[in-house]
Amino acid sequence: MAYGQRNRANVTWSICAILLAGCVQAVPPDLVTAIDAIDHDLIALRAPEAAPEEYAHFVRQWVLLKTRVQSDDDLIRWPWESNDLEDELRRLHDEGGSTVARLNDRQAFQRRTAESKLVRLEERLQLIESQVESINGRIVLGEKPVQFDLLIKQARSFFEQKDYERSIQAAESASHTLLAQTAVLTRELGRYTEDKRITHWQTMAKQTVEWSRVHQSTAIVVSKADRVLTLYKNGRKVLSYPVRLGFNGIREKQFQGDGATPEGRYRVTAKRGQGQTQFYRALALDYPNAQDRRRFELAKKSGRIASAKSIGGQIEIHGVENELMAQTLGCVMLDNPHMEALYERVSPGTPVTIVGALTGQNSVALALAQLEDRKEET
Amino acid sequence: MIQIRQTFAPLALTVLLVTGCAKPPTEQIEAAEKAIKEAQQSGAATYTAEEYAKLEGTLAALKKEVGDQDVKFALFRDYGKAEQLAASAKADGERVKTEAAKKKEEAKAAALQAQQVAQESVKSTLDLVAKAPVGKDRAALEAIKNDVDALKASLNQVQTALDKEDYPAAQTQAKAIHDKSQAVSTEIQNALAKVGKGKPSSSKKK
Questions:
Q1: B63 touches chain A (CB under 8 A)
Q2: Cα diameter, chain B
C-alpha cells in the first residue's frame, strides 16, 4: 500500500516537473538581445539620417514593445499558448533586419559612388593641371583651380568620415567647378581652335616669310601656342628657338600689366647690347603700333577695357636677366646663347610677326580638345 | 432607514464611479513634449540623432498608450504605463538636451579651431606672397596670387557654414583651406628659391 502511495506521489511530481519544464518565458531573452543588436546596427549605419522614417518606425515599435517586455518579464506560458508579444517582436526583428540589410546595401552603393566620383575627379584634376601647365594657362583660370581643389579635399574628408552623402555632394560641386574651368578655358582660348583665326595667322606668317624672300632680308615669326621663334633669311628658315612668353602670354594683349604677349606685325626698332638693357641683349619692338592703338581705343570705348588702363609698351625680344628667372612680363624671352645667335643676325627694321598659332593642331587646341573630350566623364 | 439607503446608494455609487475614473497624465505628457522640443532645439537631431530618434519613438509610444487607454471603458482605464513613459521621456529629453548641447559645443569648438588654423595659414601664405619680389618669374607668382585670393575668399565660406551652425562642413572646409594653403606656401618658397637673390626688376611698361 505504502509502496503504491509512494509511486503515485512520484508520478504526480514527475508530471508537475514535466509541465514546469515545458513552460516557457513569455519573452525570449535572445530575441530581445537580437533586436537590441539590430538597433545598434541601425545607429552604426546612421539610420536616423539615412532612413529617418524607417528608423522612427522601428524605434516607435521598439519602445512600445520594450515597455510590454518589461511588464511581461515575470510571466511564463505554456508552449502551445499563442504569444502576441513574441510575434510582434519577431516581426520587428525581421523588419529591423531587412532595414539593416537595405541600409548596408545603400551605404555600400554610396561608398562606391563617392569613391568612383572622387577617383574620376582626381584623375580629371591631374589631366587639367597637366594640360593647363603645358599651355601656361593656369592664370587664365583665376581662382577656380583652388575652389576645385578645396571641394575635392572636402569630399575626401567626408568620405574618410564615412559621410558618403556629403562626400558625393562635395564631389558634385567639384564637378561643376571643373566644368566651369573647362568653359573658361574654351571661352578665353577658343580662338586657338578657330579655323578662320588660324588661317589669318598663317597668312600673316606667310606674308612675313614672303617679305623676307622679296627683300632678301631677315624676318622673325613667333608662334605663341608652340612657343617657338623662327628666323627667316631670304625667305628660308635659318634657325628656330624655344621661347618663353609673358606670365599671361597665351592671351591676347589688352593693356599694360596684363602679362599678355601682343599679337601682330612689328619691327625691330633698336638693338640693345650689354649695358644698354637689363637683360642679356634685347631687340626692342614697335609695340604698340597703329593697329594696336586702334584696337585698344575701341576696346576702351566699348567698355571691355577700363578707362584708367594704359596700352603698355617696351615689348622686346630679350635674353635672360638672371639665369634663375624663367618668365617675362609680356615680352618674348630666349635663353642667352640663342639670344646671342639671333642678335647677331638681326638688324633694326627686321619684321617680327607674332601669331597665336600656325596650325590647327597647336598645343592649346589639342589641350582644349582633350579637356572637351573627357568633360562628360565626371 | 430603508428609504435613506435607497436614496444614497446610487449617489454613493456615482461618486465612486466618478472618483474612480483614471485621467490621462496631461501635465506629465506636456512636460515630456517640452523636454523633447528643447532637446531638438539644442541640436539633438544632428548631434545625438539616434538618441533623439528614440525620444521621438518614446513620445509616439506614449501617445499610443494614452490613446489605447482613452478608448477603454472609463472604469478600466489605467494610465500608469503612460505616466512611466512620460516620466522616462522627460528625463531622457533633459539628458539628451544636455548631451546634444555638449556635442554641438564640441563640434563648434573644433570648427572654430580649424577656422583659426586656416586663417593663420592663409595669413602666412599672404605674407610670403608679399615678400616675393616683383621679378621676372611672374607666371608662377601671379598664379599663386590667384590661389591665395581664392583661399581668402574660401575663408568666408567657412564663416557662412559656422553662421549656419553646420560645424562639420565648416571644419572640413577649414581643413581643406589649411592643407591647400600649406601647399601654396611650399610653391611660393620654391618660386622664391627659383628667383634667387636677384634684385627686383626696374619698373617698366609692358
A1: no
A2: 127
Measure the CA–CA gap between A155 and A120, rounded to whole angstroms.
Answer: 13
Answer yes or no: is pLDDT of B199 > 60. Answer: no
| Same structural domain, A92 and A131 | no
A71: containing domain: 2-107
Calpha distance B125→B117 (Å, rounded): 12
In this structure, is residue A209 part of a structural domain? yes
Q: How close, in Å, is residue A212 to chain B by CA atoms?
A: 28
CA of B68 to nearest chain A CA: how many angstroms apart? Answer: 12
| Stated pTM of the model | 0.73
Asked if the C-beta of B194 comes within 8 angstroms of chain A's C-beta atoms, the answer is yes
B201 Cβ under 8 Å from any chain A Cβ: yes
Interface confidence (ipTM) of the complex: 0.72
Is position A367 within any domain? no
From the CB of residue A14, how many other CB atoms can be counted at a distance below 10 Å? 10
| Nearest residue in chain B measured CA to CA from A145 | B147
Position A323 scores a pLDDT of 46
Inter-chain touch B136–A328, beta carbons under 8 Å? yes
Q: Tell me: do A126 and A247 sit in the same domain.
A: no
A44: confidence class by pLDDT, cuts 50, 70, 90: confident
Q: Best mutation site among B56, B62, B136 for testing chain A: the one with the most A CBs within 10 Å?
A: B136
Name chain A contacts of B180, Cβ cutoff 8 Å.
146, 149-150, 153
Q: Quickly state the pLDDT bin for B200 (edges 50, 70, 90).
A: very low
Give, for A243, the enclosing helix (H) or strand (E): none
Domain positions in chain B: 21-103, 105-193
Q: Tell me how many domains chain A contains.
A: 3
Distance CA A185, CA A367 (A): 10
pLDDT of residue B114: 96
- A122 with A99, same domain: the answer is no
